[in-house]
Structure formats: C-alpha cells, structure tokens
Specification:
Elements (H helix, E strand, L loop, with lengths): L3 H19 L7 E4 L8 E4 L28 E11 L2 E15 L5 E9 L8 E6 L11 H6 L7 H5 L1 H9 L3 E5 L11 H17 L10 E7 L1 H16 L1 H4 L2 E7 L5 H8 L8 H13 L9 H10 L4 H4 L8 H4 L11 H9 L12 E6 L23 H13 L5 E6 L7 H17 L27
Parallel strand pairs: 6-7, 6-8, 8-9, 9-10, 10-11
Antiparallel strand pairs: 1-2, 3-4, 4-5, 5-7
C-alpha cells in the first residue's frame, strides 16, 4: 500500500461514520468460545492486543481430530468490538474458528470475522477477501479487528475504507483470514478453501444472523482477488452448497500464472521483493525446501522476509532478480522441479471455470511503480500483476461456458492506483447482482492475452 498514513485517516473517518450510524452505543467487549458440541463455554474481556502467540482462541484444542469434522464446522465463537488501528469502535464483530482444508488437502483450523450490518436483515452478505499479503499470521484481518497492531496489519485496517460502504448498504460482511494460520502466501487453492469454508461457518453459526438462504457476493483486490477467484473456481466441486448461494465475484489486480509474475517483476524497483515472498510462501504451503537452491545472498533475503509482510518487501530490494538469489546451476527458476510443480498447482489457468458472473479489473500502468519489464510472451502489467494473463483468463472463462464476464483494463493505472476506481465499480456491480439484474458481458471484446499453459522444467546448467 502506498501512503498508508493518508489512507488510514480516510478509513478512520469512513468506518467511524458507518459504525456510529448503524451500531448502538459502545458496550464492553466480550468473547465466548464453544466446541462443536457445546454452546458458549467461557466469557472473558477481549484483549485489544491479542496475538496469535498469546490468544488461545486461534488454537483448536478439542478431543476429536479435525478430520472428524466437516469443512466449515464452527469450533469456537467469540464476540468483540471492531478495532481500527487498535482503537475499539462501537461496531461489533463475531469471530469464528472453523475447520477448513490447507494447500496439501489436510484438515486445518482457520478464523473468520463476521460484521453484521444493523440496517440489513441477514439476507445478503459480502465475503470480503483482504489483500493483507503477509508471511506473518499476526498480520491477518482477524488480528487487526481484534485490536492487534503490526506493520502488516496496516493493510486490513486500511481496507475498512472499502468495507464501510457495504455495511451502510445493509450487507453483512464475512472477512476470512484467507492465508490460513501459517500465512501461506500465494497458495491460491488454500485461499479458496479458507474462503468457502468461512462462508459455511458464517451461515452455520447462530450468532451471525446468516443462514443457508443468505445470498453472497465475493469481493477482493490483489491478494484478496487470489482468494476471490479461487473460491469462485473451486465452489462447484469443493462447496456446491456455497456455490448455490453465490451471486457473483468482483475482483481486481489478479495473480493468474505466478511464474509469469516472477519474470515480470524480476529486477523491478519496487515489487522485486515479491520474488522471495513467493519462494517462501510456496515452500511453506507445499512442504518443499526451495531454500536449498538459494545462494548465500538468497538465504539471507529468505531469512529477512520469512515472517515479513508485503510492506517489508516493497521497495526494500530494488533490482532483485531470481538469478541473484539462486545458486548458479539454478539461474533459471524452471530448473528447480519443485518450483515448477508448485507454480503449476497455483496457476488459475488450470483451475475450473466459475459458474457465477464475474467482474474482473486490471491495471496496465506498471511503469508508474517502477516495473518496466516487457518479457516475451508475458508483456506488461500493473507493476506486479500481468495484464495479458488476466485477459487470457477472462477469455478462457468466456470460451468455457461462462458468458457473464465483465473485464475492464485501466492502461494508465498501476497496482496501487486501480483500487480507488475499482472499489466503487465492484460495489455497484455486486448491487446489480443482488438486485437480480442481468450480468453484463465483455466476452466478445476482450483483447487476446498470454498462454496460460503449465510451466515446463528445464535442465539445471
């Protein structure tokens, strides 16, 4: 995020206005926890400085293995005040620990936050996926909402600017920690399962006011778009019950084929720090050791960012390339078999086509943020996301049965500029889907994009 201080000032005003016009007078925050077979078991004052290390709410401690519960099962529940930059607001938030599935298909426990709009009736909700992009679980939106302060937590705090208008319109918000409790950065399929199971949990909790009859929209930008698109793509097979509740997905600044993005940002001035973040996230998500292919400098950068957020990476490694981090035989990332396997697993081009309408926005003014690359077969983008990949994905959806795709490209906006334009457009687009209006389509007008074929391994030199 650029200029976080300016944005936080605007966010504070927006959320405070929404909270004061929709919520009752502030009361003492309380927290309740329950197992899947008992109701509220404990009540305690919610600490505004709760973190993953000190807050027992984040740990599943039941006697039954997680595998014995269906995905979306609520494991614990607590209610607390919504915090903005560590300061409690009058708005209440319900947090749920629920059973989900990680990138390797194993049972996991994750947390989501539900914020009820007192002007709504629970019939419509938006699952808002944050772009907190971090390798530190303490930067997740649930921690920020509970009052935890961290550098990476600036982002979910700032995103209240996008969420306040939704509350004012009567939407209940469901805000999952999309990256899971290990902060598995860039692991798209895990983002998807965490998002879908968050919706399941929110509709199964008696405290949220949501039900199986609640209609949902999906919304997210950048890292939030990863979760939004993977959830939309996975819903028909992984969560058909949720898919029936979805009215559409609205996203911007999307990661499609991660190997392309790494080549695009290679050597850039600001976004090159995403390279080691992706290496760490892929290693963590899929239980592989990419560090063994790093030279001493690469290992140093790896260790510096192992628990860092996107704010620790942006602009901190100008000119960084994969080659500078890798041992000489692995100067080409595709010479690392584990890398090739992992990036192919998280290539949206190989995932299913969503069955619901979609609004996809993408910038193409990456030079504004110091990314001047134009690699053959990849082209330009918004400084971190590749425009040709996003166009290709949108065209692929149109060609494979979903003709309710609206694509919009902003050629003179970069990654940090697009959200200002995208957010109000996305909210308007979602309003129309909830109103039952026919979804617009750009399927005949989307320019050609890149190949989204899986990466091919090459021999080590």
């Amino acid at each position: 995020m650029s200029k976080p201080g300016v944005r936080l000032t605007a966010v504070t005003a927006a959320l405070a206005t929404a909270a004061l016009t929709t919520a009752p007078a502030a009361t003492a925050a309380t927290a309740t926890e329950s197992t899947p077979t008992t109701t509220a078991a404990t009540t305690a004052t919610a600490a505004t400085t709760a973190t993953a290390a000190t807050d027992p709410f984040y740990a599943y401690e039941g006697g039954e293995p997680l595998s014995s519960f269906a995905p979306g099962t609520v494991l614990k529940t607590r209610t607390l005040q919504y915090h903005l930059v560590g300061v409690p607001t009058p708005l209440k938030a319900i947090q749920l620990l629920y059973r989900s599935t990680d990138a390797q298909g194993r049972p996991s426990a994750n947390v989501t936050t539900v914020v009820r709009s007192l002007t709504g009736d629970g019939s419509k909700a938006v699952s808002y996926q944050s772009f907190y992009d971090s390798l530190n679980p303490e930067d997740g939106p649930s921690r920020a909402i509970a009052g935890n302060l961290s550098l990476g937590g600036v982002i979910p705090n700032a995103e209240a600017l996008f969420m306040a208008p939704l509350l004012a319109k009567g939407y209940t918000l469901v805000i999952p920690d999309t990256q899971g409790q290990r902060a598995n950065f860039a692991a798209g399929p895990e983002y998807g399962t965490n998002t879908l199971d968050s919706i399941r949990a929110a509709t199964r909790s008696g405290e949220t006011g949501l039900s199986a009859g609640t209609r949902f929209g999906l919304m997210g930008y950048s890292g939030g778009a990863i979760a939004t698109n993977w959830a939309a793509a996975m819903a028909p097979a992984y969560a058909p019950d949720v898919n029936r509740q979805l009215v559409g997905f609205a996203e911007g600044g999307l990661l499609v084929a991660p190997a392309h993005n790494l080549r695009y940002v290679d050597g850039s001035l600001v976004w090159s720090g995403v390279i080691p973040m992706a290496v760490i996230g892929v290693s963590r998500s899929y239980g592989i050791d990419l560090k063994q292919y790093m030279n001493d400098y690469g290992k140093q950068v790896y260790e510096e960012l192992e628990h860092g957020s996107i704010l620790d990476a942006l602009g901190h490694y100008p000119g960084l390339t994969w080659k500078k981090m890798a041992k000489p035989p692995y100067a080409d990332a595709n010479s690392v078999p584990d890398f090739v396997d992992a990036v192919n697993r998280i290539n949206l081009g190989s995932a299913a086509t969503p069955a619901i309408p979609g609004f996809i926005a993408q910038g193409n003014g990456g030079f504004l943020e110091g990314t001047f690359g134009n690699p053959p077969g990849i082209g330009t983008g918004d400084a971190v996301m590749v425009a040709g990949d996003v166009r290709a994905l949108a065209r692929q959806y149109c060609a494979t049965g979903n003709d309710s795709i609206k694509y919009e490209q902003f050629n003179l906006l970069s990654h940090n500029g697009v959200p200002v334009v995208w957010a109000p457009l996305a909210i308007d687009w979602l309003d129309d889907r909830f109103a039952g209006r026919t979804a617009p389509s750009d399927c005949g007008d989307i320019p050609a994009g890149n190949s989204l074929a899986p990466e091919q391994p090459v021999p080590a030199s």
